[in-house]
Design a protein that fits this description.
- The structure is a single chain.
- By secondary structure, this protein is of the alpha/beta class.
- Helix 9 links the parallel strand 7 and strand 8.
- It starts with a helix and ends with a helix.
- The structure holds adenosine-5'-diphosphate and magnesium ion.
- Adenosine-5'-diphosphate binds next to helix 6 and helix 13.
């Protein structure tokens, strides 16, 4: 029977969906399309189209075994997966063609069908999230674009240096035109904690740092609300390149500064200097481009700089506080340029990431801080990372100034007003609902008389969370559980705490429920 590539791929997707998280499925598999299915010698080849080479590397790195198993299951042992990487760059103005590359999926080493292969020029895989500096050389050539900027840019001391370009980023007294990159050295990958909220953006940023200008993420645009790590992440790319001496000139600039400098250049008749200056940058990072909105002249200048850099394989990294399409007053031709590359968003961090960030921050600052304080802050401050750090600093300052022990009561006292605003919405009913959903029992049962084992457990866990997460008295809590008295609540709380201490599985269950309550009470 003739099968269509779509039908076969759909069957594969159904299997894959059951084996990975929803988020991973959405990110890595949902966008892929099957484009071909053919019998070739003894093999049945299914070709799937990928939007970038990064996808290829990511799939091969993380989902190799799953894909292999799935293909075998659906197509039999003769089944083989092929990728077609199509990078859409079609653009009348520059005449860039769409770039297409075809690659077979890797085979296990002992199977016929060729040795395991990796892309020859690919550097360390993007999944390497250690953030440790590497000395990978930029590739010679890749299907995705020209190699990163030519060595020996005009400002190198080669003798044929053109007249110095007036620019505001020169470090006085250093070699001619040594540009101060304006980076904050503490914004590194090392210090950027990974979580579900930032995984895609972080991996892509790291891939770019390892092969600037030659991934298909050019430009790379990170967007998200305030305090979620945009500035940190885009600067991490710059710091990585500098640490590994992979670029001669890296420049970080806010869009406001870019605009101001441009306006001054106009006033002083130095627009061509301005323009030349930016064209010699190997990695140009512009932060908060939402401020370009409605600034037509600035956008026009940026557009030309963008084209010049992009065409010579230089990397452009941008950030914005919202998706570019939602920024009002950005020209269409710029928006279409942004689509050449990758946009990735940063979301509000989940509990585990908040905890990890606080732990890391305390460690970096050499502060000893109890886990329960860290968890307290992480549970209560949710909206963004800057506030999270702010809470920790505030607590530290308070403890130092008042010469007080940094313990949980102090943390509660200091952070009370910060927290009040975030916790108002959490009610006893809400906790009961989440817990009962988790244990799959009806909510009425925790308020009823029954002493069935699973109901008692759900009741005790609910009481425990009510005591932990609301300001209600034990008496009030008891009343919401079918009029039980406060000693029952104390007993429940004690029992749950004991089990948390002694039973790892149970502790995980509690954390999972806590996380669910968290999500509800946002
Ligand atoms: P934005 O530019 O999105 O407003 P920032 O990059 O200024 O946010 O981040 C705010 C603060 O939070 C900075 O101090 C930054 O170092 C820190 N931060 C953000 N994301 C992370 C992360 N994933 N891991 C560690 N620190 C982070
Ligand atoms: Mg910022």
């Amino acid at each position: 029977m003739e099968q269509s590539p779509e039908a076969v791929w759909k069957e594969c997707l159904d299997i894959i969906r059951d084996n990975i998280s929803r988020q991973s499925f959405k990110t890595w598999f949902a966008p892929l399309k099957a484009v071909n299915l053919e019998n070739d010698s003894d093999l049945i080849k299914l070709t799937v189209q990928l939007p970038s080479r990064f996808y290829y590397e990511w799939l091969e790195e993380h989902y190799f075994a799953l894909l292999r198993k799935t293909i075998t299951k659906v197509l039999g042992p003769q089944g083989r997966l092929f990728y077609e990487i199509v990078i859409e760059k079609g653009d009348a103005e520059t005449g860039y063609p769409n770039a297409t590359t075809q690659l077979p999926a890797r085979q296990p080493a002992n199977e016929p069908g060729g040795p395991p292969r990796r892309l020859p020029p690919s550097g360390p895989p993007p999944s390497d999230t250690s953030g440790a500096p590497r000395h990978s050389k930029p590739p010679q050539s890749t299907p995705a674009g020209p190699p990163f900027g030519p060595r020996g840019t005009p400002h190198s001391a080669t003798g044929n240096t053109p007249a110095p370009i007036a620019n505001p980023f020169v470090i006085p007294g250093l070699k001619p035109a040594q540009i101060d990159s304006q980076l904050n050295p503490s914004y590194t990958f090392e210090r950027f904690i990974e979580g579900d909220c930032n995984r895609l953006a972080r991996s892509a940023a790291l891939a770019i740092a390892q092969q600037p200008g030659s991934t298909s993420f050019n430009p790379f645009l990170v967007y998200g609300g305030v305090g979620l790590g945009k500035t940190h992440l885009i600067q991490a790319i710059g710091n990585y390149l500098k640490a590994n001496r992979m670029a001669e000139t890296v420049l970080y600039v806010s869009s406001e500064r870019f605009t101001t400098e441009f306006v001054q250049a106009i006033q002083h008749n130095r627009v061509s200097d301005f323009s030349l200056f930016y064209r010699q940058i190997d990695l140009l990072i512009i932060d908060d481009i939402q401020f370009f909105g409605r600034k037509e002249k600035t956008q026009e200048e940026f557009f030309h700089i963008f084209n010049a850099l992009h065409q010579s394989g230089k990397q452009i990294v941008l950030s914005a506080d919202r998706p570019p399409r939602d920024i009002s007053g950005i020209e269409e031709r710029l928006l279409s340029r942004f689509q050449w590359g990758l946009s990735a968003d940063l979301q509000t961090p989940e509990l585990e990431t908040r905890i990890a960030i606080l732990q890391r921050k305390a460690e970096d600052d050499g502060i000893e801080i109890d886990q329960d304080i860290i968890e307290f802050i992480a549970h209560n401050i949710k909206s963004n990372i800057r506030e999270l750090e702010g809470a920790l600093i505030r607590l530290l300052a308070y403890a130092t100034l008042r010469k007080r022990e940094m313990d949980l009561p102090l943390a509660k006292e200091v952070l009370r007003d910060l927290i009040k605003t975030t916790r108002v919405s959490l009610t006893i009913e809400e906790i009961q609902r989440v817990v009962c959903e988790y244990f799959v029992i009806s909510e009425d049962l925790v308020r009823a008389k029954t002493r069935k084992r699973e109901v008692v457990q759900a009741r005790q866990v609910s009481m425990f969370f009510c005591k932990q997460l609301t300001q209600h008295s034990l008496k009030t809590i008891g009343l919401h559980f079918g009029g039980r008295d406060h000693s029952t609540v104390i007993h429940a709380n004690q029992s749950v705490e004991n089990q948390i201490e002694t039973n790892v599985k149970f502790r995980e269950v509690i954390e999972e429920i806590r996380h669910k309550i968290e999500l509800r009470s946002r």
